[in-house]
User: Fold this.
Amino acid sequence: MAIVADVDVFVMGSGGAGLSVGARMRKFGLSVATADEAQWPGGLLTGGLGLPDYVGVGASTDTLTGVGRQFFIDCETAAIADGAVVGSPADNTTTPPTAEVRGYGRQYADLPRRYLPEWGRFARDRMLSGIQPFWDIEIADFAIDPVTKLGGVVTFSDGRQVRAKQFASASYEAQLGRAARVPYTAGRSENRATYNELLAGAYSNNRNIQPAALLNPKGDIIRGNQGYTIVAPGIGELRNMAFNWRSTFSQRSDRLPFQAPTRPDGLPFREADFEDWIAKRGSVYTNIEQISSGQFVDQYCMTTNGGSQWGSPMEYIRCKTKAQRRLFWAWHYYYTAGWYYLAQTSSRVNPALKANMALWGLPANHNVTEWFGQRGWSSHLYVRTSHRMMCAGKISFENIGRAARGLTFESMGQGGYHADSHAKCHATLPGGGYMQDGDMLDDVQDGRSYWGLPFAAIKPPAGIIHNMLEIGCPAVSEIVMCSLRMEPTWMSIGEAAAIAFYIAIRDGIPVTEVPYAKIAEIASSLGLKI
Assistant:
């Protein structure tokens, strides 16, 4: 064993929350080490996000400030250096921007409407300046003093160790928090037991044009509806729309063709693995957007958003180790890349789909140094959901939106994005019928109301660890997570947490004991909206 870093703050996770913690801590002049199980840092910010949702509804009401806002300004700097042209916002959901736009557009005066992976990597590297990195690594142990309940040393699987004064858990997998023995839950249907939410536990798949096969963790195919289930925490069976590749596709003349992926078990690619997909979708769909729910970044490039979960017989969130998660990535890549490849090459797909797919490939100038499976492919999996910490500060949809007006929260970041509704997921109503699970009864749809993530929701339960905050998997229900899980929101929460860490180190106290008034005072002096 060897201590290879002795720092003020150790951060596990390098998505929006983790990057923001580190960048703000460096601005405070403190030392930071950041680790991630992924081979490359950045998460979806650099792995194909493409279209950032800034949460706010106007230039005067958006909640992205500080280092998070600077990230996207730096994206624009890289975009202009790459030859992109600023244009007015355009419809980029179902049609490419008009010829007059010729560029990526702006959401507000200083923030890009859309961006491409290499631009995000330029901004990411600026945020990582001065931070000691540990990529492609797994946590093996987290030593916590049994008396003081203070974490001290993190041990990686290769034996290297990092010592820190304070710790930030900032990943969807909650590796650091789970290593500290903090309790977490996962899934939707368990909300009925752990959060007592009305809208949780029933799912319908009957609004799809072609019903997809839904698979539970055991690999059983489920079609139709699943009724209310009362289960123990974390034992929700059905997990749908929880993960995906969010890649960038290109129509440019130098695009790379889709390749037949190799099976993770070493066997060659075989069309027989895709019989359901060909029969149910490939023979019916006519264009790439029906496969990918594409959003155009410019007139040539599209970032995928969502798409089929076909062929994924296990739940990512239930993979307990890095090896299990990487194997999941490999199989998920095989099936996802496989049906793009077949859409271009198989004689059995709809001719209209095949003709449309002939126009598309992977970008030759993005995802060049960081990719999974094939050059040009995204380097990160799009995880739509996460573990959620169990503690006294947990909140459900009854605590947010219009229902929360007039309540006092020690806010560490503002949610306000409408809770995403997916056509595959419906929740039954207490009085009968069902609705999309994102359309909450008392919701924050279309930014009509913001809600504060309370400080208590990122503090671990008392008596476990006192010098760690859970930023990536706060104590919120699955439905509330739908409103929270935007990268700009994570960046705001991460920056607020960094202020708490700074005060804790300055005053020599555990971060969970920092008075909120001190956090709010510094945030105000920095012009941050938390």
